[in-house]
Amino acid sequence: MPFRLRVDGLGASRGEDPIFREISLLLEAGGALLVTGRNGTGKSTFLRTLAGLYPADSGTILIEGGTDPTVPVRESLHYLGHRNAMKRDLTVAENLLFWSRFTQATDDVAEPIDATGKTVQALEAVGLGGLGGLPFGYLSAGQQRRAALARLLVAHRPVWLMDEPTAALDTASERMVEALIAGHRATGGIVIAATHQALDVPGAQMLTMAGFAVPA
Amino acid sequence: MTALFLRDLKLATRAGGGALTGILFFLAVVAVVPFGLGPDLKLLARVGPAMLWIGALLASLLGLERLFQAEREDGALDVMLMQETPLVFTVFIKCLAHWTASGLPLVLVSPLLGLFLNMEPQAIGATMLTLLAGTPAITLIGAMGAAVAVALPRGGLLVSILVLPLVVPVLIFGVSAAYAAVEDPAPFLPPFLILIAITLFFAVIGPAAAAVALRAASE
């Protein structure tokens, strides 16, 4: 069976308020989904529910065609939230090196991971080559975001969940994000991104969140 | 996992990491005791082990609330919750790193502070040994409190209050073992073995409870 992500009848609430109901979708390998909608309509909640960080009220999230069906879905995902998951006091390279080693699924002795090489490559890919030695806290907001994007590159996960990936980024960097997304899809990955910016993602499915509790 | 251990050690020793804060607090507590009690050398030697233990206990509680809060604030906790590595194991490694960075230094400076209190070499050795066996338990118990209070912005005092009743047994058996080594009739081994048992017990219970609390807090 080819690799794909299937979501059936997903619903979630925050406290007493329902946020979304009955979202179903099917993403083939190489597929993409753009989640749009006004502030507060549940884009982030949707992504966090997919990531397993919030409990779902109903519905299922399945990865079909994976190697082991008993593995929880969340372990096949990269989640890039609003916050960058980087330590200000460590250098950019140290941060990435840590995530590379920490999120690597298994320490395969036969095929040792070149974490350092991957870190350098990832920094080049997001246009931060040469800044690896700076403490993360010294970077500008846009550079910090780009470093956070590099985290998705240092360890492979088939599905990327990106919450506002272009927050604080300039136009050139938005193109870079599009290139990263295209590159990930070209290798058979799936990308789900929530965004306000008009991101150019060819052939992406669209999901517009309406929201339940938004007053008119 | 070594990566997590090394990262936490680095963070603790860099600016704002707070590994030194504990030692300074320990020093401050022990250094004022002779001024408060007066220059009665016999009395100081007698209360010495207890003072060292109380100082180390309070110093270990400092900074515990940041154990998971810092991870939560920058979003790293979300990523850790999603990994293949069991959360219990991640928590255990974080406790280990925290103890190495802030608990072990307390043990290492305790002989020096013992001199302030006119303690005999044997009493200093016994106190150091009991601190070595007992302070990991404080960190492991503290991890439970830190995990429960992870979402609270001013959780520091709450963590200490949650944790204090649970660490009292550690204090009791730590101090009684340290005294047993210097006072003749009391046996050293039974309280010391109970102290080790407490540490091992919380090495299992602590990370498991903290992991459950962290999962619940993320929802």
Structure description:
The complex is a heterodimer of chains A (216) and B (219). Chain A is α/β, with parallel strands linked by helices. Chain A has a single domain (4-208), classed as 3-Layer(aba) Sandwich (Rossmann fold), CATH 3.40.50. Chain A has helices spanning 43-50, 92-103, 115-125, 141-154, 171-186; strands at 4-14, 17-28, 32-36, 58-64, 77-80, 159-163, 190-194, 205-208. In chain A, strands 5-6-7-3-8 form a five-stranded parallel β-sheet, sandwiched between helices. In chain A, strands 2-1-4 form a three-stranded antiparallel β-sheet, with helices on one face. In chain A, a hairpin with a 2-residue loop joins strand 1 and strand 2. In chain A, helix 2 (92-103) runs parallel beside helix 4. Chain A is globular and about 45 Å long. The N and C termini of chain A lie far apart (45 Å). The mean pLDDT of chain A is 83. Chain B is mainly alpha-helical and 219 residues long. Chain B has one domain (2-218). Chain B is elongated. The A-B interface holds A 48, 51-55, 71, 74-75, 77, 79, 81-90, 94, 97-99, 101-103, 105-106 and B 2-4, 7, 10-11, 14-17, 73-76, 78-85, 218-219.
Give a brief description:
Chain A has 216 residues and is α/β, with parallel strands linked by helices. Chain A has helices spanning 43-50, 92-103, 115-125, 141-154, 171-186; strands spanning 4-14, 17-28, 32-36, 58-64, 77-80, 159-163, 190-194, 205-208. Chain A contains five helices and eight strands.
Q: Roughly what is the average pLDDT of chain B, rounded to an integer?
A: 89
- Multimerization status: heterodimer
SSE order of chain A in H/E notation? Answer: EEEHEEHHHEHEE
Task: Identify low-pLDDT runs of chain A.
Answer: none
Structural class of chain B: mainly alpha
Topology:
The complex is a heterodimer of chains A (216) and B (219).
Chain A: E1 4-14, E2 17-28, E3 32-36, H1 43-50, E4 58-64, E5 77-80, H2 92-103, H3 115-125, H4 141-154, E6 159-163, H5 171-186, E7 190-194, E8 205-208
Parallel strand pairs in A: 3-7, 3-8, 5-6, 6-7
Antiparallel strand pairs in A: 1-2, 1-4
Helix pairs in contact in A: 2-3, 2-4, 3-4
Chain B: H1 2-13, H2 19-37, H3 41-61, H4 66-73, H5 76-81, H6 87-116, H7 121-148, H8 156-182, H9 189-218
Helix pairs in contact in B: 1-6, 2-3, 2-6, 3-6, 3-7, 3-8, 6-7, 6-9, 7-8, 7-9, 8-9
